[in-house]
Design a protein that fits this description.
Elements (H helix, E strand, L loop, with lengths): L2 H10 L4 E6 L5 H7 L11 E6 L5 E5 L12 E5 L2 H11 L5 E4 L15 H8 L4 E4 L1 H9 L3 H31 L5 H15 L1 E2 L5 E4 L23 E10 L7 E9 L5 H27 L5 H14 L13 E2 L25 E5 L2 E3 L4 E3 L2 E5 L4 E3 L8 E3 L1
Parallel strand pairs: 1-5, 3-4, 5-6, 10-17
Antiparallel strand pairs: 1-2, 2-3, 7-9, 8-9, 9-10, 11-12, 12-15, 13-14, 15-16
């Protein structure tokens, strides 16, 4: 836990403190930011306040009185619900505004870890509860230099597996041997194993109208054959099999034939243009140090798609934060599913992945962007045309 940096940012945001709360280990963010692992399973509520100035302090149940011993500051005990109420009041003495893992209207679900009743409990003591979303992004979403290097290394492996997967489809089609979406999925998983990367699930391998389902995933007995004349979408993500590793997450499309049909090519060019519009906005704002918020990146991509008549077929946000989990806790590029007003800050990474999903086929083009102090980069290869398969 970087106590000094937390307190500096609390003062900058005009907050009196950051109140952490957990029960049954429901808030992994609390443990990551505070930098400790509970010594045993958490069966009782605990509270821990980092004030803007002064020593932190905690509140623990008497039968789990050592739960917060790894953290600095005094810990007061409670047992009954009556003593909990008064002890919490003492804990928050002098606080008017505190941050908690709460999101108004659940606008940022990744941060909404504290239950409504606990928020009501704190408010009943005359304390205003503010979302910790900006704090979480600063202390949980920024990458170290080592994490960026691991991302780039994973990217090289994943990009090679992606090339091999499209080539494998072509080889099977040319030889007359059959191949299914699930076969390609398994080929990719085997490539990940050989390359030393891992993924929590997936990948997505989708043919024709299956590609119009953004979260389609083939399984044995529930998949489609890949044939000549088919469009193939592959969305694959993985990270190095090392502690602290972060994900690399991309989507490419290909066509099984010598020439891409005009209808498919037109949609691809719309998606590519939307992707590049979002990339350009991020890079231009970053270069001059101008603030940029997640919803603005979504607006750039979505506006491009809308102007070309495909707005109703772009059904998800433009991008998501990336970290040790493929969907991270930083700002999302979103003004559709949520209105993400969080600033895009240095040291964070996110996807740019607009898509157009028609009844017959869907196309998505996904890259990852890492933002530094004055430079924003696409961290891997960028698809400029559909892959010609076989």
């Amino acid at each position: 836990m970087d106590l000094q940096s937390i307190q500096d940012l609390l003062r900058e945001l005009n907050l009196d403190g950051w109140l952490f709360f957990d029960h049954h280990e429901r808030d992994p963010l609390a443990y990551r930011v505070l930098g400790f692992t509970p010594p045993r399973h958490v069966t009782r509520r605990w509270y821990y306040l980092i004030p803007a100035s002064g020593e932190p302090r905690g509140l623990v149940h008497r039968i789990e009185s050592t739960m917060l011993d790894a953290l600095p500051g005094k810990k007061a005990p409670y047992a009954s619900w009556q003593t909990l109420h008064s002890a919490l009041q003492d804990l928050l003495q002098g606080c008017r505004r505190v941050a908690m893992q709460y999101s108004p209207g659940c606008a940022v679900p990744y941060v909404a870890m504290v239950d409504a009743g606990t928020v009501e409990q704190v408010r009943s003591l005359g304390v205003e509860v503010i979302s910790s979303a900006d704090l979480i992004q600063f202390f949980d979403s920024r990458w170290t230099a080592a994490q960026l290097e691991m991302h780039l290394e994973a990217g090289r492996i994943v990009d090679e597996v992606r090339r091999q997967a499209f080539a494998h489809i072509g080889n099977r089609l040319r030889s007359g041997a059959g191949i299914t979406e699930f076969d390609v999925k398994q080929f990719i998983r085997e490539g990940f194993d050989r390359g030393g990367v891992t993924a929590d699930h997936g990948p997505i391998v989708a043919v024709n109208n299956n590609a119009s389902n953004p979260h389609y995933e083939p399984f044995a007995g529930s998949c489609r054959e890949v044939n000549r004349g088919d469009l193939v979408l592959i969305d694959l993500w993985a990270k190095l099999n090392r502690p602290g590793a972060v994900y690399y997450d991309i989507t490419w499309t290909g066509f099984c034939g010598p020439e891409v049909p005009a209808e498919v090519l037109n949609v691809f060019e719309v998606v590519r243009g939307a992707r590049d519009s979002a990339i350009r906005l991020v890079q231009e704002r970053t270069a001059v140090g101008q603030p940029l918020r997640g919803f603005e990146v979504d607006d750039a991509a979505r506006g491009y798609v809308r102007e070309r008549g495909f707005a109703e077929y772009f059904v998800h946000r433009t991008g998501h934060s990336i970290g040790p989990d493929v969907h991270g806790t930083g700002a999302n590029m979103d003004n559709l599913e949520t209105h993400d007003e969080r600033r895009v800050i240095a040291g964070t990474c996110f996807s740019i992945e607009p898509g157009v999903y028609l009844p017959k086929f869907g196309i998505r083009s996904e890259v990852n962007m890492y933002v530094g102090e004055r430079e924003a980069i696409v961290t891997g290869e960028v698809q400029q045309a559909p892959v010609l398969i076989a």
